[in-house]
Amino acid sequence: RGVVLDSQGPVLVSEPRSSVEFSNDTGAMIHCSAHGSPSPRIDWLMGDGSPVLPIPNIREMLVNGSMYFLPFGAESYRHDVHSAVYRCQASNSVGKVLGREITVKAVVRQKYEVQVRDAYVLAGNTGVLRCEIPAFVKEYVAVTSWLKDSAFNIYPSAESGEKHHMLPTGELLIFSVTPADAHSTYRCRTVHHVTGDTVESSSYARLVVTGKSSSVYKSVSPYLFE
């Protein structure tokens, strides 16, 4: 009598998270694996179901089923490759299984600068300083901290019991402002979460503290309450 081997359709063991971002100067390796009997074959499909093919010096398909996006120069960016939806497929003679949609986005490294500007505030009120991030990198850049007087670091916190409080969105609050607060300087620090680049504002910001009886207050009141 012959021996009957158990057959099993493919089951995905690992696949990438639903969103993969990487810098053009690092590239990215995306893994997918499955088990079954017979051993499944791994293929990659585009979001529309068409097969993914290797492109010399751009995208490679490895024998272990991984897909490799090579580092590339800005001039080699391809929207259909570097900003596209992919899916992993495992198949054998029993059947096939399709993985989740994976949005791949390559980010071309670009230098950027951030700025801070003086903020007007009435004495006794709360001053708000903002870190201005260029639009072309805004979705990838976050404010990590503020530097007061080039010596004191202020980081995000859940509670605001101190004089300074940095919001998770990056703004810096200075509570119960007094004229003395106008002497301090502030800079913001940022990080690009894809490239890892850190950038600090080249300029400083100050609080311009005003009072109701001052002529300065009258000149800036339209700005304050627009």
UniProtKB/TrEMBL annotation:
Which SMART domains does this entry report, sorted A to Z?
IG (SM00409)
Question: Could you list the residue ranges forming a coiled coil in this record?
Answer: none
Q: Which Gene3D superfamilies match?
A: Immunoglobulins (2.60.40.10)
Any Pfam family: I-set
Question: Do you know which InterPro entries this protein is assigned to?
Answer: Ig-like_dom, Ig-like_dom_sf, Ig-like_fold, Ig_I-set, Ig_sub, Immunoglobulin_dom
Q: Which GO terms describe its cellular component?
A: membrane
Instruction: List all membrane-crossing ranges.
Output: none
Q: Which residues form the Ig-like domain?
A: 10-103, 110-205
Among the GO biological process terms of this entry, one is: cell-cell adhesion
Lineage: superkingdom:
Eukaryota
* PANTHER family per UniProt: FIBRONECTIN TYPE-III DOMAIN-CONTAINING PROTEIN, PROTEIN SIDEKICK
Q: Any idea what this protein is called?
A: Ig-like domain-containing protein
Source organism of this protein record: Temnothorax longispinosus
Origin organism lineage: Eukaryota, Metazoa, Ecdysozoa, Arthropoda, Hexapoda
